[in-house]
Each structure stands twice: as structure tokens, then as C-alpha cells.
Amino acid sequence: MHTIYLTDNGLQLKKKSNRILVKKDGKTLDEIQILDLKRVLIFGNNQVSTELMRHLASKGIEVAFLSSRGRFKFRIVPETSKNIYLRMAQHERYRDQSFRVRFSKTLIKAKLKNQRNFLVRYQRNQPETNLKNSIESLKKYRSRIEQIKTIEQIMGLEGIGSRVYFEAYGKLLLGGFEFSKREYYPPPDPVNALLSFGYMLLFNELSSLLEASGFDVFLGFLHSTKYGRASLATDMMEEFRSPIADRLVIYLINKGAVKLSHFTPKEKKGVRMNEVARKTFLANYEKFMTASFVDVKSRKRKNYRQIIKETVFDLERTLLNNTDYTPYVFYS
Questions:
Q1: What are the Cα distances from residue 4, in Å, to 33, 37, 38, 244?
Q2: Contacts of 82 by beta carbon, 8 Å cutoff, 6+ apart
Q3: Which fold has domain 3-76?
Q4: Which of the chain's ends, N or C, has fewer CB atoms near its CB within 10 Å?
Q5: What is the DSSP-derived secondary structure letter of residue 260?
Q6: pTM for the structure as a whole
């Protein structure tokens, strides 16, 4: 077991030997073994005992708190890594503008390639949907990256590519779901709500792993420094958005696991997913992250959690040795 998700409201979580005791209204609902646990995600209004939090921290287990709608609130993490040399190297690379531009180009080239490969794969599954122009455009934008000189220009080209990609993405959806462009908070439609939820889960995993490895998660290279934003985690998400979150969302929709009836309008603006959609998403996300497959690059069986961990290790080597970073590429 890597992660547990607690989505109910009014839970009381306590320590019982080496287990998490889950109670509600005085009744015991579950007892969860802590032995192989990596992280706990708690949605809604619940109570966690000090004794349990202390025990989880001593085992290196992170606890993240989210709203009942899935919006990230805060995390309780174990002691920060003592790897001061990594943080020194990270700050030194940040001051090197040529490194930042080179690193940013690598990330966005990988993102555009992964988006293109995603469309190529799903074009085969739905040959009646013509995505040829979008696929060619993403290839063209990727080739332009090398001629760009600034991070602002890189981000501009990434934005253009993403608009093309998401327009094509909407054409692949079944079950009456409609989607034309990516919009953030609040999500105006079910597809945006699902994408945001998936990106939040991915962001939380990356933030946790980067922090545990000793990085300064607030200092990114592609995304600008902003008070309270874990810019490095946002950087590292770019290469994984389409291979993980986007694929999972389209799988859930096209297989009928989530339906339009699972979403309701919010009071003022946007939509929210109901408990059925949230639990369905979380269960499938966990399966998706832990299912092994043959990685094309290494020819070895891996899962996405292993791949993410390897990319974080590669980032550490990149910063310490001032070498080129190798991103994850999703093959079509």
C-alpha cells in the first residue's frame, strides 16, 4: 500500500498500535495498517490525533489535507532533508540564466512531444476523428523551441501548443462530455474538474518527493518565483501531465466510469464532482500509478511512481553536476 484516501466527513483518526483507527459517530469504520504506507490524503472536515500525526511523521509518512471538493489546503511533512548541498546547487543553477533557459527548453520539448504522442495514440483508437493538423502543429512548435532565447518565449510557445492540444483532446471524449479549452478555478465543466483533480494529485506527489529529497520546492526554473507557490513541483509536472492525468481522465470518461450525472453546478460558478466520481477517480488513480508496464526507454517493467522517483533523482544529479536533464517521454 502506498497511499490511502479518506473522503468522508466527520472522521476521527487515531493511532492504535501500528494502525490508523478510523471512527465516525463513535463507531469504528476501519483499521489501516501503517507498515507500507507512504502518504495519507484527507478530504473534508476530519480530526487527526496528535499522537497519530507524531507517529506518521516518525515513519516518514506525509499527511495532506484537502477540501471536500479536492482543493489542496496544506500538508504535514516529516523533517526536511538535511541535503544542504543540493539546495546550494539548486540556488546556484537558478542564478545561471543559461541553465534556466536550457532546462526550460528540455521540459517544454518533452511536454509538447508527450502531448503529440498522446494524440497519435488516441488517433489510432478513434480513426474517424481527424487530429492530423493538431499533431503536425505540436511537432512544429516543438522544433521551434531551440531557436527561442528567453523563458518568457518558451512559456508563450507552450501556451500556444497547449491550446492546440486541448482543442484536439476535446474531440476524443465520448459519453456526451464537451470540452474546448483548459480553464482552472473554478472548473466550468466536468472535464476541467477532472483534469484539475488529477493535476492536484500529481502535484502533491511531486511536492512530497522533491521536499523529501532535499530540494527547495519553491524555487523553480521554468515557472517564476511566487510567494507560496511550489514552482519546482509545477516545473516537474509538465512532462507528466498528458501521460498520467490526461490519460486517466479520458479513460474514466470514455469507459463510462464517470458520467455527467456525477457533476452538479456550484452556487455561483463552475461545477463540482460528487462522492461517486471522487472515489472512482481516486481508486483508478492509485491503480494507474502502481500498475507496472514495460518502459520503452529502459526495457524494464516499472510503474509511474518508480518513473517519477527516477526523474527526481535525475534532477538531483543535474543540479549537483550541472549536466543536462533527461525528462520522461511517453511513447505512442
A1: 10, 8, 9, 19
A2: 214
A3: Ribosomal Protein L15; Chain: K; domain 2 (3.100.10)
A4: N
A5: G
A6: 0.85
- Give the cell for residue 41: 490524503
Express each pLDDT in 106-137 by its tens digit: 999 999 999 999 999 988 888 888 899 999 99
- Using DSSP's 3-state secondary structure scheme, residue 135 falls into helix
CB atoms within 10 A of CB 117: 18
Q: Amino acid letter at 221?
A: F
End-to-end CA distance of the chain: 30
Q: Where is 66: in which H helix or E strand?
A: strand 62-66
CATH top-level class for 84-321? mainly alpha
Lookup: cell for 83: 541535503
Kind of pairing, strands 27-33 and 301-302? unpaired
Q: pLDDT digits over 1-23, tens only?
A: 477 888 777 888 888 888 888 88
- Give the C-alpha separation, 159 to 179, whole Å: 17
Are 202 and 244 spatial neighbours (Cβ–Cβ below 8 Å)? yes
**Nearest-angstrom CA–CA distance, 138 and 322:** 29
Q: Rounded distance, CA 214 to CA 230, Å?
A: 14
* Annotated domain spans of the chain: 3-76, 84-321
Per-residue model confidence as pLDDT tens digits over 303-319: 899 899 899 999 999 99
Look up residue 284 and give its three cell numbers: 483508478
Q: 223: which DSSP letter?
A: S
Residue 320's Cβ-count burial label (10 Å; 0-12, 13-18, 19+) is middle
One-letter identity of residue 94: Y
